[in-house]
Amino acid sequence: MAWIWAGFIFSVLLMLIIDLGFFHKHPKEVSVKDAIGWSLVWATLGLLFSIFVYFGYENKWMGLGESVDAVDGFVNGGWTATMKYLTGYVVEKSLSLDNIFVIAMIFGFFSVPKIYQHRVLFWGIIGALVLRGMMIVAGARLIAEFHWILYVFGAFLIVTGIKMLLLTSESDNPGNNILVRFVRRLVPVTERFHGEHFIVKAGSKQSAEADVPGGVALTDRVVENAKPGQLLLTPLALALIIVETTDLIFAVDSIPAIFAITADPFLIFTSNVFAILGLRSLYFALSGMMDKFRYLKVSLALVLMLVGVKMLSAEWLKHVLGQYFNVYLLVAILAILTIGIVASHWAGKGDHR
User: How does pLDDT run across 337-352, given as a tens digit for each residue?
Assistant: First the structure.
C-alpha cells in the first residue's frame, strides 16, 4: 500500500513541476481558451484515474480494497471503489466551485494583476493538498475509532447547506482576516506588487521598483522606511495567505461530505487531489462568468444537504437500494448541478429580453 501512495504523490508532484516549470514558467495572463483547455486536461486525468481505481481494487493491488469500508461495511471491489471515487470527485469538484467565487473576491480586493494570479493559485493548491491530506488522515482515524462521528458530520452538512441557502451575499472583507492582520503586525508589508515575488528584501533591486498599472516603476514608501536587508511581504503574499485560509475553511465542509461516501483514505485523497488540481484552470475559465451562475449556490447547498441526509440514513439506504446505492447518489448530485446550471442559463436569457 505504501508504494501505491508514494507512486501517486510522486506523479502529482511531477505533474505540478511540469505545469509550473514548463507551461507556466513565465508570468502571463491565462486566456479563457487556455483555461478551458487545461480544465479539460485535468478533468480527463481525473476520470482516467478511475480506470486505475477499478483494476487496482478489483485485483487488490498492493493491499487496495482489502479492508472493510467503515461507511457502508463492504469491502470495496473494482466497481464499488470506482463509483465511490467518481462520486467523491464530483462532490469535491462541485463544492470547489463556491471557492472560486471567494478567490475572485480576494483577487479583486488586493487588485492582483491577472499575470500573477496563476502563481498565487499554484502555491495555494500546494498548501491545500498538504492541509487536506492531514485532515483526511485525521478523519479516517476518527471514523475507524468512533463510527458515530459520521452522524455528527451528516448533521453538520445539513446545517451548513441550510446556512448557505439563507446566506444571500459574501459579507467578509478579506482585509479583516485575522491571520492577515496578525501578519501585518509581525512583518512589514509593501504597498505595491513586486513582480511575482511573495517576499523581497529592503534595498534590493526587486524592492526598489514596484509593478503598477501601465508599467510605470514607482518607489515603494514602505520599503523606504524599512531597514536595509529586512524581509518584506508583498500584497501577493497576503493574497496567498487568505487563499490558503479560505480553502481550509471550505475543507471543513467538503472533507466531511466525502466521508459520507467512503472512509477509504486512498479514494478520499485521490478524488480530492484531482478535484483541486483542476481548480486553477476552472477559476480562469469561469471568473468572467460568475454573475451568470445565480443558482449555483442553491445547487451546492442542496448537494451538501443531500450528502448529509445520505450520511444519516446510510444503513436504511443500503437496505432499500442495495450495495451500489452510491450510484444513485452520484446521479442525484449530477442532476442537481445540471438543473442549477440550466436554470441560471435560462434566467440569464430572461434578463436580456
Answer: 889 888 887 887 666 5
Task: Dig out the grid coordinates for 175 from the structure.
Answer: 482585509
This prediction has a pTM of 0.80
Tell me how far apart the alpha carbons of residues 107 and 117 are, in angstroms, rounded to a whole number.
8
C-alpha cell at 12: 502529482
pLDDT, tens digit (0-9, with 9 covering 90-100), for 255-279: 888 888 899 999 999 999 999 988 8
Instruction: Give the torsion through C-alpha atoms of 147, 151, 154, 160, to 10 deg.
Output: -120
H helices of the chain, in order, are 2-18, 32-58, 78-110, 114-145, 149-166, 178-186, 205-208, 221-225, 235-259, 265-277, 279-286, 296-312, 314-321, 325-351
Residue 81 to residue 255: CA distance in whole angstroms: 18
Q: Are 264 and 110 in contact (CB under 8 A)?
A: no
**How many Cα atoms are found within 13 Å in the side-chain-facing hemisphere of 76?**
30
- Locate the domains of the chain by residue range: 29-171+264-351, 190-232
Task: Name the stretches of the chain with pLDDT < 70.
Answer: 21, 167-177, 203-226, 288-291, 323-324, 349-353
CA max distance for the chain? 71
Task: Calculate ∠ Cα 213-217-219, nearest 5°.
Answer: 115
Distance CA 264, CA 246 (A): 26
